[in-house]
Request: fold
Amino acid sequence: MVSAEIAQWVQQAGPAVTAAVSAYGTAVLTRAQDAAADATVGLGQRILQVVWRRGDETGRAELERVVDEAVDEQDDVFTTAVLGRLLKRTLLADHELREELAALLPVLAAGTLTVTASGERSIAAQHIGTAITGDGHTPPRP
Reply:
């Protein structure tokens, strides 16, 4: 994986990792995978556990700190961003880990786009103009 592929992989993995952190908090790093967990949460849990197992003591401490911050924030956008930055840094530094994690996600066909939304009142789109999700808002005037 080159840098652009890493960025695409992190973007594709982000919703799964965020869902796993939201579902399990820091326990996502060490708990056994729940057979009843949905596919997205299970994938995110597997990704984080692979990073956790391959990390040294410093890497594990950083991953645990970032997951703790993400849990405390309880904001999917924040969680995706901080975990994405950590995953990018980790993948750039470890070629074998890149190969192992790349195998966890399905290969996207050229031109394929996956858009995922998660959370209450979430929306997803490739291109979007104005999007208002909430009560009592007045749409902006053209």
